[in-house]
Structures
1.
Amino acid sequence: MRIVVLAGGIGGARFLRGLKAAAPDADITVIGNTGDDIHLFGLKVCPDLDTVMYTLGGGINEEQGWGRADETFRVKEELAAYGVGPEWFGLGDRDFATHIVRTQMLSAGYPLSAVTEALCDRWQPGVRLLPMSDDRIETHVAVTLPDSGSATGSGERKAIHFQEYWVRLRASVPAHAVVPVGADQAKPAPGVLEAIAEADVVLFPPSNPVVSVGTILAVPGIREAIAAAGAPVIGLSPIVGDAPVRGMADKVLAAVGVESTAAAVARHYGAARPLSGQEGQERGEGGAGLLHGWLVDSVDAGAVDEVAAAGIRCRAVPLMMTDLDATAAMAREALALAEEVRAS
Amino acid sequence: MRIVVLAGGIGGARFLRGLKAAAPDADITVIGNTGDDIHLFGLKVCPDLDTVMYTLGGGINEEQGWGRADETFRVKEELAAYGVGPEWFGLGDRDFATHIVRTQMLSAGYPLSAVTEALCDRWQPGVRLLPMSDDRIETHVAVTLPDSGSATGSGERKAIHFQEYWVRLRASVPAHAVVPVGADQAKPAPGVLEAIAEADVVLFPPSNPVVSVGTILAVPGIREAIAAAGAPVIGLSPIVGDAPVRGMADKVLAAVGVESTAAAVARHYGAARPLSGQEGQERGEGGAGLLHGWLVDSVDAGAVDEVAAAGIRCRAVPLMMTDLDATAAMAREALALAEEVRAS
């Protein structure tokens, strides 16, 4: 079975660990978000790719969900002693090595996809990890910064890097728009469209629908390839009980005018046309969206009918990734829903 | 008093510490060797500049003479885990930060001299540290590598980076030539020629006469500026009792056809013309060399007459930098010899 997963950082990485347990023989291709990539200290940092790589490769800091286990911060302390920041982004010494290798290879002319493959030679994540694009894409967030005492009394509107919004400001200022700068000119990385075309199932893990999965879908060609793949597309809600399971997805959902509910996120992705050869296909049912199936958490069972009414097959199951078993069970539910879509 | 010092790494840095103690009110400009600079992991590493900066700024590893005190090697271990070397060059975590800052500034377009000044803002070395040039110069060594079992039975001749010869091979293979690649096209860094022109005394510390002081003198204009400065030029022998005090200077001296003796190194630098207005100047005495005075170690007292016969004022004094007091005493002897030259 060939599975394609569109993954952001922590949520995507943890789900993938469950998916590998649930489908140990599957051929899994992960299309990783690079919209939160950032240049720090002259080095190219790819937080989401690294979180997937470290998590599946056994190097992750389990407690915080990102960064390396057994980490120290000598380099960062020394950079601060030189007055060189930012200090709000936590790069550890072990982590620095990854960015040094990546930057050296990029400077030598290798595309990010080749660099990612080389890094994975060490980590052996057990999946094929592809960046969504080799082109530079940076998610920026239009915010209103707190009033700094200007004559007008109104806060300053400004576009800032996603990491500054997310990590430095902890999404604490109003966000008006989320823009994956560069995405419109970007091409999918080699292998991305091919993997989607050959997929037996496409999964959207409980990653951020705006700044993770949404950014991947903003690369021209990826959304179209998924819609055309003829494979069931199944998503898992990152919103449980009207709040994000982790992170601050509600803040960026608000910026794109989507409610923080499991049903609203499903409608945001939209209903896919039925798979070709199926009944609805002939009747022209379904829409221009992507989802054939959607899993909501048991506490959101009340949303199942609403999602189904939108043309998306929906089930309520436990969606808290409390441990590997619970996460593997979620992955099994997603694969079962895909089979149900295919068989319908 | 304005003092200009041409410095390599450990020997130069330790001498400078003594000089600062001996002449606390002097205005000291250090012209640092950059011929042993190397690009490692995509980062610009300047070992000699850093050794001077760390030594005078209180951050040096005192035992080994280079690198940072209280150092760890997480980044290097991780790079090795990625299969990225070289492993033979000991970059510690704290040290990495210096190279990251330097590389980031160079990439932003700042010349090495401005970068060095910025790094020294933190370290406050108490001297003005100038790289000999903002242009890239890399000392290469022509060597015969050990016979690798070729049909001819002879070893391979090859030019390798100075650090590979010095650090990886520990100067254990025959060296035929030492070439500061790029020096012939390089210009002295801003401030270098001005500092020399305004100097009251120029000192050659007990640094390597070939790959440290010799490389600095290979930058077009520096040798000429020293010869024209009208200031006493005093050197301290790095050879004591026919062997280098530290390092492997004998190996590179052999490559340029100079015996490893205190007198031979003095003749290698050569006798300067007497200072303008002095007797010898009118008589056309002295040569096209650089030295007015030369200090040899007490154990080499027998060399004093030979050096003097070459037209260089010479004294035998203790030249072992065993501690700060001993080093300060050496610096005082050098300054006293400069006064003697001026007064003669």
Note: Chain B touches chain A at residues 41-43, 72, 74-79, 81-84, 93-94, 96-98, 100-101, 103-104, 107, 118-119, 121-122 (CB under 8 Å).
2.
Amino acid sequence: MSEPTLDVLTIGNALVDVLSHEQDAIIDRLDLIKGTMAMVDGARSDAVYAALGPGIEVSGGSAANTATGIASFGGSAGFVGRIGKDQFGQVFAHDLATIGVTFDPDGSSTSGPTGKCLVIVTPDAQRTMCTSLGVAGDLAPEHIPSDVVASARVTYLEGFLWDQPTAKEAFRTAARGAHDAGRQVALSLSDPFCVDRHRGDFLELIEGQIDVLFANEDEICSLYEVDDFDAALQRVRHHCSIAALTRSERGAVIVAGDEVHVVDAHPVDTVIDTTGAGDQYAAGFLHALTAGRDLAACGRRGALAASEVIGHLGARPEVSLADLAVAHGA
Amino acid sequence: MSEPTLDVLTIGNALVDVLSHEQDAIIDRLDLIKGTMAMVDGARSDAVYAALGPGIEVSGGSAANTATGIASFGGSAGFVGRIGKDQFGQVFAHDLATIGVTFDPDGSSTSGPTGKCLVIVTPDAQRTMCTSLGVAGDLAPEHIPSDVVASARVTYLEGFLWDQPTAKEAFRTAARGAHDAGRQVALSLSDPFCVDRHRGDFLELIEGQIDVLFANEDEICSLYEVDDFDAALQRVRHHCSIAALTRSERGAVIVAGDEVHVVDAHPVDTVIDTTGAGDQYAAGFLHALTAGRDLAACGRRGALAASEVIGHLGARPEVSLADLAVAHGA
């Protein structure tokens, strides 16, 4: 087995986020569920967009956000996902390249629109999302670069991929390739409704294919169909090698068999927008993990990255996370 | 003469801004001049973009920004400019419609790229811009809706239009149409280098065609080729019916013949990004002017609008300027 050339390869939906500040009432009026992600077709996306105020466009996509966080920490990260040959695709590719994430725009682009995620930010800093996948949903096994997967310490997959049949196969191909090369596979459960849609598959996957699991409280409770966090914790600890369970301002719990760490959230002055908190938590955690740090240190670095991203609008770091890690000794 | 149906019609380059935070060094490295706008072709724009960090895309364009400010104050505003049939064009049209600015996206779109303005924000909150006009530069006399011009109390034109031969003709057509209908014409000088390129034309225009002139200190000094603000002030007071001259944190001076008002800048906690300060100053001023307020009140409302926009990233208001005006008694 040769030395890995990438710390983390992330695979997911390539999206451009369109953020707008809205009052709470619009969530009900648009039949959305606060704090969750709804997958919609182009027509529904257009109808929701027309109801929203002026927007800010920024590159997004859960797994891609995580890749930018790892790069910002100084780690080597790559991303695989599909973009359109359009302006949003150019923006998405530019924003990865310029932060240092390895991505092949030419090999990743196809005709059709780049995926778009309408992110409605309410006064409580909560975000409610409405995604039209566009060509992001075309991800298929033939798009998984087996050599890159084999060269990455960790291949990180977002649960959202499970919503599309070919992307699900791509997910399986990538996970198999990583394990065949002796590497690790990480999964983010992404969203409680996503878990609800694919519970059986996720339970089976976690049993055999996932080395590091990321989930928030709602997601892990949904996975095991339990009402309280502690019950979910007891289930996951013997189900998965490492699970990092985030609980917003109550911090995170990291479990690996009998090893359990409770890591406090990093303090934040004002929470502006929680978009990307989970993505950046995963970035910090995986950056530390691939650098050989212990699990408590992984948790602290995850918390630090999450605290940075919720302090401003958008799901990607605005400052160097490497500098921030030095400043906070994380 | 029938009652006006619009307070202000603004005409200018339809642009999407791509903002990025950069260190000062990049300005020299890219051969740009801090605080100014460089007009570039697509290839140069691509080269500059490739050198910049991750961006935030927001609708922009000087005159369009002014229209959104007037709408945010509760005034009726329209915009005329050219967009492409592309994603940036859709974003631009959405962001005008949703804030209440009258704009005809179908009649205003053409094949070719929507104009793009790379906005480099340095740590001093100053912005340096690099614009590739795309189809915004195609604006021509046949695109000026004579009925709309005739129905607006004020037609507001940005000096940047003078950089394109057909847009210059469109500018003349609009100004003539407004005056023929007994309406007023306002001009923003836009940028000191723009003034330098078109000094003779601007001097002649102001003499005969402009009722309200907006300029900052650099621009008005460039216009009259004088070194100090007071010298420029003495020149402009007998040259133009109303001139509103902005001086950043030193406030603004409004002159109309023998009438002179010095209006302080509105206090700001932290200046984040000066992009759009002049555009929003014009919005507040024109909103008050078209409501029949006196010149001092126009100046105070301009200062209030400018203070809102420099407190955050981007060139358009983030809160209701009408609410802000009530809160501050402006």
Note: DSSP finds 14 helices and 15 strands in chain B.
